[in-house]
Amino acid sequence: SPEDHTRLVAAAQALVDVIDSEEESSNSKSLMEHLGEAPQKIFDVMTATSKNYLTHMIGVVKSYLPQFNLAPIAKGIAPDCSDEKFQDYCKESEVIAEEILKNLAE
Questions:
Q1: How far is the C-alpha of 97 from the C-alpha of 89, rounded, in Å?
Q2: pTM of the model
């Protein structure tokens, strides 16, 4: 229906407005072109945000343990850590992660 089409276009434009900078949204690209770029732009924002949080978290760890070698962390989970144990560590860390996010928001 025409009403559905109008609502769909408005919703698509709202999404584009959120993910595009003012300069990008005012250029000559069509709404469809902007929507085509949306997944990559959302991924880029998520990646940058994750990097910022990880950098902050690693900095916090280093502030308490400056002698700690963080290089192995970049390789992922320790080879001798089972999936079950890792899940336990993640569950245990959830409360701390929530507290960190709360502190970052202040």
A1: 12
A2: 0.64
